[in-house]
Amino acid sequence: MDQALLTRIAEALERLAPPPVAPIALGAADAFVWHPEPGVLQPVPVVSRVEIDLLLGIDRAKQLVLDNTLRFAQGLPANNAMLWGARGTGKSSLVKAAHAAANARWPGSLALIEIHREDIAGLTGLLARLRGETRRCLIFCDDLSFEREDADYKALKSVLDGGIEGRPDNVLFYATSNRRHLMPRDMIENERATSINPTEATEEKVSLSDRFGLWIGFHNIDQDTYFAMVQAYAADLGLRISTERLQAEAKEWTVTRGARSGRVAWQFIQDLAGRLGTETTP
User: Fold this and answer.
1) CATH homologous superfamily of domain 26-218?
2) pTM value?
3) In what order do the strands lie in the sheet with 110-114?
4) Among 22-31, 156-165, 178-187, which is the least confidently predicted range?
């Protein structure tokens, strides 16, 4: 076989081979978004977040998540965490605030990596890339839930359990969800009705939540807590408005929204600050 033919075969094989995997540059930023295709971490220069001291009405949850995150940032044992409950109650804000608090105490100690719900099946690949890295990484999935015929929960269970390799020591997983057990009720009820062994089938789906060492509930807030949130935001932004007018307008705002929550409080403050000509970037 002549040399020219061998060269053409070698070049053809190179074209068929997958491109080399780009190295992960965890030092490029404190926060990233994971894109499984083509397998890169996109740096996030500025994280949209609220200071942890401004998250009111969730004192117990705040202390649990903050303590767990600080221990992990120090290299101590810590638990995966599931934050579940009502919409707009501060679940994702708390995760981002705890990450910021850890890096404020120990600069550069912790990278926050967001993975989208639709990319959960590729979580194993991300962990493989992070294994062996020296920087500690907090993987965060916001609004995590699973629908009927969705098998991605099995991949997540495997990751949380660690599989044969175990979860990398430098990785922790936080998720938020509006569902207590991540599965819709009709999906669980359907398993009870159609499975040969209904109890085992139901347990397989419900037990996903058991893989999280911390399982923290968030609930709707009362009016006094809502007013406290609004007043704290207003004071932090330096809004010049009387307490009586602030509370009256904040109360009217909840009527138009039909709910009270930290998210509603912040939306009201954005509207108020706009009317007063004040910027609201946290």
Assistant:
1) P-loop containing nucleotide triphosphate hydrolases (3.40.50.300)
2) 0.80
3) 40-43, 31-35, 110-114, 136-141, 171-177, 81-85, 214-218
4) 178-187
